[in-house]
Amino acid sequence: MKGTFYGIGVGPGDPELITLKAANLLKDIDVVIAPRTGNKANSTALHIARPHLRHDTEILELTFPMVDDSDELNSAWENNKKTILSLLKQGKRVAFLTLGDPMLYSTYIYMLRLLAKHRVNMQTIPGITSFCAAASRAGFPLAEGDDILTIIPATCDRDKLSQALAVSDNVVLMKVSRNTPELIKLMQSKGLSEHAVMVSKCGHPDESIHYNINEVSDLKPVYLSTILARKHPTGM
Description:
elongated; 4pyrrole_Mease_sub2; Cobalt-precorrin-4 Transmethylase, domain 1; CobI/CbiL/CobIJ_dom; five-stranded parallel beta sheet; single chain; 7 helices; 31% helix; five-stranded mixed beta sheet
């Protein structure tokens, strides 16, 4: 395979929160793959990366549907894989954009596995995660000393979630836009709601920060919302 496939983390939202390595690579990329979840959805990762792209960079917005239909999923993945392999066979430098870091809850991970079977030249460029950016924006230390920090998708099985909350000093809860009242109630039962903050769309123009998550009616979680919580105050 003559070309090279790059997985590039573009950070949480602010185009300036991208690594020098990623910015420099994007200037030399031939084709940018901008994943989106549906035909009408815009690519947030592409919006972040645009200031770092040449005006003549080819852009392909490929759809990676978020559905439960395994046949539809497999068909979409295979078609996208074929498109990328065709570009690599032409010797193209292809970048797959991803929000945050490519190795954390990312669509890129699945494509990485598929392309690895074809002995593709691949490089992964790390990015700033949403929860690290959120902690900085909110002035909320993630962990110190011997604190146990746990990263949890709030969509996981409730028993697993309850166990993780019970044994953790501090938590990062991602994907909190569903069943938020139920989630807050569970956090309250584990002593994790008093010292907590929810950051939505960190680094975007419409970013919001909520320091009192117990006021559930005031929370307006969206897909890009993250809750940071700890069982004890920071002492700040």
